[in-house]
User: Fold this.
Amino acid sequence: MGDAVPATGTWESVLAALEEGVAACGRLLGQHDGGRPAPAGLPPAVVRWAPPAGLGPLPESLAERARALEAAQQDLAARLAEARSTVATHLGALRAVPSARRDAPVYLDVRG
Assistant:
């Protein structure tokens, strides 16, 4: 009688919310659209996750799902790091382009 029964339903809700967060971030990276960028819009709020109070231990029946979620989060973190690196490279290239001088022509007449 002293053993606490894990709240499977609560854990399922928690895992579902975390999975949706991973999926939403993946969509923002274009992961689910054949590599095309996600539609414009604001990303979901980024907050530090904390387990709900009284969640209890993870039920064994959900352990594989939790491991799959962890792997998906690690994959997403790697993809985000890669995207960040790519953006930093692009920003560096843009910063290397000299800005237009106001006293110089903007267009070059090549026809005549």
